[in-house]
Design goal:
By secondary structure, this protein is an alpha+beta fold. It has 2 domains: 1-33; 38-169, Yope Regulator, Chain: A (2-Layer Sandwich), CATH 3.30.1460. It is built from 4 helices and 8 strands; from the N terminus they run αβαββββαβββα. The chain has helices spanning 2-32, 47-57, 111-120, 147-169; strands at 40-41, 62-65, 71-77, 80-90, 93-103, 125-128, 134-141, 145-146. The strands form 2 sheets. The protein has a 6-stranded antiparallel β-sheet. A two-stranded antiparallel ribbon has the order 1-8. The N and C termini lie far apart (84 Å).
Length: 171
């Protein structure tokens, strides 16, 4: 049995190492996570969370409520007013937000314009309403994300998606 005794310390060391790996990986991931991402919203966002995120990002906004009493925010993307609508709300927290932009047109927009956008673009879904006005919307989950993630999504929509969309429709 002396030969088996020499393997025990190695086996113990291997076992301790394997047990410690998940904790070490979690600590490393947390240490590398940028502090600017803000808190994680495990159960969605409150109106106060959204107001703080907008202020932190330097995004001017107006807050009010929609017809069901859920929070709604108005921001400006370039020179175009855009709404951020709240969905899946319960207990003062909302799990889904939707960026929503409608452009009132003098002449009805052809559905093919929206279809062309949707066939080629990932960010935002376009449609033409019954009055012939064109819309672009982007729903996104805010359950389990940081305020930094919400800020990044809004900024990308305003800085990239909206200008691309306006060019696409000839605005």
């Amino acid at each position: 049995m002396p030969h088996a005794d020499r393997r025990r310390p190695a086996a113990r060391l291997l076992l301790v190492t394997l047990l410690a790996l998940p904790a070490a990986a979690a600590a490393l991931a947390q240490a590398e996570a940028p502090e600017t991402n803000g808190p994680v919203f495990a159960e969605g966002v409150s109106a106060d969370d959204m107001s703080a995120a907008f202020r932190h990002a330097g995004i001017p906004f107006l807050a009010d409520k929609d017809s069901t009493g859920d929070p709604r925010y108005k921001i400006t993307c370039g020179d175009v007013g855009t709404y951020i609508l709240s969905y899946d709300c319960s207990g003062g927290r909302c799990a889904t937000l939707q960026l929503s932009l409608a452009l009132d047109q003098k002449e009805p927009v052809k559905v093919a314009v929206a279809n062309d956008w949707n066939a080629d673009k990932l960010w935002g879904t376009a449609y033409v309403d019954k009055e012939g006005d064109i819309w672009i919307q982007l729903p996104f989950s805010v359950r389990g994300v940081t305020s930094g993630s919400i800020e990044d999504t809004v900024k990308h929509f305003c800085r990239t998606t909206v200008p691309d969309f306006l060019r696409h429709i000839g605005w």
